[in-house]
Amino acid sequence: MEHASAAVIIDARGMVTGWSDGARRLTGYPAEEAVGLPVRELLAEDPSPDVLAARTGTVVLRHRDGTPVALPVRACEVLGPDGSPGGFVITAEQPGGAEPTLAGQAFQQASMSMSVFDPEQRYLRLNGVACQVMGVPEEALLGRFFPETVEDAEHSRGFHWHLRHVTETGEPIQYESYTRAPSGNRYHAWNIEMWPVRNGLDDVVGVALAAFDSTEQHWARQRLALLNEAADAIGTTLDVVRTAEELVSLVVPRFADFTSVDLLEWVLGADEPPSAMPQDVVLRRVAHGSAHEGTPEAAVHLGALDVYPPYSPPARALREGRAVLSRVGEPSFDRWVRERNARAPKGRPYREGTHSMLAVPLRARGITLGVAVTVRIGPTDPYVQDDAALAEELASRAAVCIDNSRRFARERTTALALQHSLLPRGLPGQAAVEVAHRYLPSGSLAGIGGDWFDVIPLSGSRVALVVGDVVGHGIASSATMGRLCTAVRTLADVDLPPDELLTHLDDLVTHLAAYDGDDDIAELGATCLYAVYDPVSRRLTLAAAGHPPPALVLPDGTADLIPMSAGPPLGVGGLPFEATEVELPEGAVVALYTDGLIEDRDRDIDHATGELCRALTARASSLDALCDTVLKAVLPEEPSDDVALLLARTRALGADRVATWDITPDPARVADARQSATEQLTAWGLDEAAFVTELVVSELVTNAIRYGAPPIQLRLIRDRTLICEVSDGSSTSPHLRRAHAYDEGGRGLLLVAQLTQRWGSRQTGAGKTIWAEQPLPPP
Q1: pTM to 2 decimals?
Q2: Host domain of residue 134
């Protein structure tokens, strides 16, 4: 008993027979008053049955001044000479006193929280760390029921449940908890282990626990988890604002109570980054969020501009290019919070308790894009340098994604502008067909494709219809599309048949790949469909280079694909292209399109072309309305490629608008040709055009007789212009030349070129045709 703080001897009748000086110090009773008293008179409450059975536990004594004193006690039975029970020696340790044993000292001085409870979940012992966690000395807890010492919260009820579970099952438990300690407002992570304490009879007489504060390890795992999650959660789209929102959603509330993302104005536009950061930084709020609905903490509305003064942490972060950690009490931080409260006083209650902030610049590829601000409010640990390092890593990942989105948007805008500048804005007026068109750029991450279409007026009132597709996306595809589109126009101006035109275009693509190093064309290829419609003969001649065949809708409402050879894609080289010719009734609709309309990863092409043919037969008030109907019915919900659609309704030039004469190859017949043309103009009411027409007919017929070969034919076409054509059997094309002052000839074609709107020649199967157009006189 020399190590005991207090010792009491009671006899078999429960009377006090011995009283130590330690007992006097603990209870206030001197020996002369305590000895001879029944021990029950010294108790403030009866011990629990478990304590009596175990002869150890916490009992509550009544101090001499009337206050209860809870003490852990141990009873040792004393036997008489005959071996019968002669009483007990009861020892008690003074709470907070020095531990007399090495084991006790180890328990008291352990760096983790350790406690011992009796089977009724009352405190028996607490070490120093446990008292710090609870925020009260050991003597204030001994003997008290655990739920009475903590708040009625979910984590407290869970702790109490685990205590009861260990007592009832006798099995140890280990679990993790993230809770606020009773002694403070900060949340801590705990690794808790509880195990039963048994007596010599293997009965559970108490529960011991050890709780290790693993807050640092917890936050290290959280930081690592955030970084891992950021790889998948940030940058799921190529949208600047959406990427900023993803960053906010990731860090709130796990890393911050409030987060905002502000970007420099040029990031959201097409401007180049400034050479230097201005003194007062102006940014636009693109995303923010908090644990409260509506984010009342925000002093700046979404989409609004904000000016960051030089002293503010965000401005410092932008200026210094690193994360700036600020805490309450720092002049710049306090000034910043006051400015926010003054600017948006309604959010002041939600900003109460703001204690730390991280301002992190969003930098990618050496360019500053904006700043992310994270704030902690209320009962959370303030930010530390490890948090700043994590924030910089998250901001870096978000910045790269934002920069990728900015670059994608810029390239998409550039490619779209380039493509729109190359596509026909207003289709030229002509009488051969009525046309309507639609072009829908791709919304996929791959970018704008290389689809194009064109309507090219040709000589003789004919018209060329073109659709093409450069495989690939981006500016390179748009630029290649522009080169091919220009080449098609140039070759169409030469008036080549469709199969020959595609042959020349194929040679051009091969040349570009071989000499310009344009691997994109050679490896990915391009497709094209070129068709020529003649309203006089009502014949459509077409050829394809790896392109889907057009659909044809007849006036009776039937629709089907035009059977034709698809041909090899452009750039393959060495393979022929085959032309197909069909005769069309007036009012037929020809639909030319790119593969984005019918092809998709999860789509059957035959089913899609069937939908296209059915949609083309739908009733529509106009070709424009029919375009919209087709796109609505056939287009996938999320097209992965650009779509170009060109609809053409055929017209026909009747015999009353075309006059043809066969010319005998005799110079004397030139006058008859002039006479016939003049009479036809009179019949059409175009006497005003007779003078120029006579000169044109005379010159072209004379050249055909002199330099050409039979058969010779003269044709006048009354369309939107007056067209004069002379055909002969020679394939030699004429050309302009400059006649000298004393030359007798050589001025005929020059005269034709001066008097007409335009002129030219085209090769035919039987020779060539020289043509000239002149505007019709106003009615």
Answers
A1: 0.58
A2: 102-213
